[in-house]
Design brief:
Layout: H1 2-22, H2 24-34, H3 40-74, H4 76-82, H5 85-103, H6 105-109, E1 112-115, E2 120-123, H7 129-164, H8 175-207, H9 209-212, H10 218-229, H11 231-242, H12 244-258, H13 260-271
Antiparallel strand pairs: 1-2
Helix pairs in contact: 1-3, 1-5, 1-11, 3-4, 3-5, 3-7, 3-8, 7-8, 8-10, 8-11, 11-12, 12-13
Length: 294
C-alpha cells in the first residue's frame, strides 16, 4: 500500500508539471516570436488559468508528498490504516479540488492579464491586494511551513536511526530507500528556491502597491518569474539525477522512441510474466523506519 500512496502523489505532481508545458508554454513562445499576444482574450484567460492550476497544484502535491513521507517514516504503525487505496485517491482528488478553488477567483477579480515583460498571460499581482496576499499565504507560506516541519521531523528520525545502527552489521535502511526520500526533499528545496523571490515580491507589492510596485526593477521581476516557472522543468531532471528507477525509465523511453519495435517486444514479453511480490519495509518509531520506492 505504501508504494501506491507514494506513487499516486508523485504522478499527480508530474501531471501538474506536464500540463503547463502542453498549453501555456507554447502560447508564450508564439507571443515571443510575434512580439506580443495575438491569440485573443479567451486563450489569454485560459492559459493564465491553466498556468495557475499547474503552479498551485505543484506545491499542494509537494505538500501531500511530504505529509505522506512524514506519516510513513515517523508514524509507520498507523500509516497503512490512514493511506489506504481509497483514502489516497481521495487525498489526490482533494488536492486538485483545493487547487481549482484557489485559482477560480482570478476570473472574479480580473487578475489574469497579458504582461508584455514576460510575454505571458498570468496572474497580475497589483490588481487585488487582498487576493494576492491570500494567494501567497495559501500557495506558498502555509505549504512551505508544513513541508519544512515534515522534513525536519524526518531528518531528525533519520539521524537518530543511523546513529543507532552504526554498530550493527545489518543496516535497517537501504541506500536506495534513503535516496528516494532525498529525491523528494531536493524537489521541495528547489521549489522553495525557485518560487521564493516571486512570492516575496508579490507580497511586498500587495501590501503597498503604489509605493513598492514602481521600485521593483523590471529585470528582477522577469528573473524571479522565469526562475519560478522553470521549476516545472527541473523536477524531471532531479528525478533522473537522484533516482535510479527514473533513470532506467528515461533510458527505456528514449530507446522506445529510437527503436519502437524493441519497445513493443518488451511489452509483449512483460505481459506474459507475473511480477514477483516484494515485501515492503516494516519499521517502527523506536528503532526502525520505513521508506518506499517512488
Amino acid at each position: 500500500m505504501s508504494s501506491l500512496a507514494g506513487n499516486a502523489f508523485v504522478v499527480s505532481l508530474a501531471f501538474a508539471d506536464l500540463v503547463v508545458a502542453l498549453y501555456p508554454y507554447p502560447l508564450v513562445l508564439v507571443a515571443i516570436f510575434k512580439n506580443g499576444w495575438a491569440l485573443g482574450d479567451m486563450h489569454c484567460k485560459v492559459s493564465g488559468f491553466v498556468m495557475g492550476l499547474s503552479v498551485i497544484g505543484s506545491i499542494f502535491n509537494i505538500t501531500g508528498i511530504a505529509i505522506n513521507r512524514y506519516c510513513y517514516i515517523c508514524h509507520s504503525l498507523v500509516y497503512d490504516k490512514f493511506f489506504t487505496a481509497w483514502n489516497t485517491m481521495f487525498f489526490v482528488c482533494l488536492i486538485w479540488v483545493l487547487t481549482v478553488l484557489a485559482t477560480v477567483p482570478n476570473f472574479f477579480v480580473g487578475s489574469l492579464e497579458y504582461d508584455p515583460r514576460i510575454y505571458s498571460c498570468t496572474f497580475v499581482q497589483t490588481v487585488s491586494s487582498s487576493y494576492t496576499i491570500t494567494l501567497v499565504v495559501i500557495h506558498f507560506i502555509v505549504p512551505i511551513t508544513v513541508v519544512t516541519f515534515c522534513y525536519l521531523r524526518i531528518w531528525i528520525l533519520v539521524i537518530q536511526v543511523r546513529r543507532k545502527v552504526k554498530s550493527e552489521t545489518k543496516p535497517r535502511m537501504k541506500p536506495s530507500d534513503f535516496r528516494n526520500f532525498l529525491t523528494m526533499f531536493v524537489v521541495f528545496v528547489i521549489f522553495a528556491f525557485c518560487w521564493a523571490p516571486l512570492n516575496f515580491i508579490g507580497l511586498a507589492v500587495a501590501i503597498n502597491p503604489t509605493e513598492v510596485a514602481p521600485k521593483i526593477p523590471e529585470w528582477l521581476f522577469v528573473l524571479s518569474y522565469f526562475m519560478a516557472y522553470s521549476n516545472s522543468c527541473l523536477n524531471a531532471v532531479i528525478y533522473g539525477l537522484l533516482n535510479q528507477n527514473f533513470r532506467k525509465e528515461y533510458k527505456r523511453i528514449l530507446m522506445s522512441l529510437w527503436m519502437p519495435r524493441l519497445f513493443f517486444q518488451e511489452i509483449s514479453r512483460g505481459g506474459t510474466e507475473c511480477p514477483k511480490s516484494k515485501p515492503s519495509p516494516a519499521l517502527n518509531n523506536n528503532d526502525q523506519m520505513r521508506t518506499d520506492t517512488v
